[in-house]
Amino acid sequence: MREAAFVKQNKEKWVAFEQAITENFRINPDDLADYYIQLTNDLAYAQTYYPDSKTLLYLNSIASQAHQKIYINKKENKNRIIEFWKTEFPLFFYQYHKTLLYTFILFGVACCIGIISAINDASFLRLILGDSYVNETLNNIDQGDPTAIYKSGSMVGSFLGITINNIRVALLAYAFGVITSIGTGYILFSNGVMLGAFMTFFYTKGLLFEASKSVWLHGTIEISVIVIAGCAGLVMGNSILFPKTFSRRVSFMKGAKDGLKIVISTIPFFIVAGFIEGFITRYSNMPVWLAMFIIFSSLALIIFYYILYPIYLNKTHAK
């Protein structure tokens, strides 16, 4: 059967079913199950005869929404939270690896701009970092402890304040996606430029390694998950710009939900980063090997959970 004939034969049924799902209309559970079976049969047919077609993408999206509708009242397992981080989220996040790559590239370019600007214009550092921070850090450098700023305040107070602030930045990066990807792009760009200028500041003082040894203890996870939160914002922003086969409203709702799920996944990592900054970073005189171990272990954790593990699970579940 030609694709056009297949669509014409079933279009009315698909549209009615999609409306019932997306508009939350009341529908008899038995009818819903029957429609779902018919839909999956049509999906299987399209996968066989019309691969890489818009029809297949459309049916895939409806089937996914229908699955969520059917199981909305399913009794949750007691280990639901564990299952979310162990299986559900990594499998879900695999589809957004390309978006994560674009986010990382944008952030990396912003860092490079911050580095180049700070090297070529001494006033740029004060413009980006602020006079108070630069003056305090210069004073700490004169006293022989360039990262003393991380030792101020109580451990618990620093931990709570830093964690809350980091989560706020992540939510901001996500929320700005509501004004399309440009909003999130702005947050990523500004934070990237700031990071580049920040590290260049210590480089110009000949203290890059000394500062990095302390800053990246917590910064490895902190910066990584800010980039991931930026990915969440781009997911929502792109859903507005590129609705594909969905209506723009439905696409936005899906993008907002997917983006929020990504942001939620970062919260435990922000807590870990806040704990490291509040309780560990202040010990800047720790052995180099220990600092490097914490930094590279943190990097390995992020790469494993957000990149390697989703790829592994996807291949395993595809068999």
From TrEMBL:
The keyword Lyase does not apply. The keyword Membrane applies. It comes from the Bacteria. Keywords: Membrane, Transmembrane, Transmembrane helix. Pfam families: SpoIIM (PF01944). InterPro entries: SpoIIM-like. The chain crosses the membrane at residues 100-119, 159-179, 186-203, 215-241, 262-280, 286-309. This is Stage II sporulation protein M.
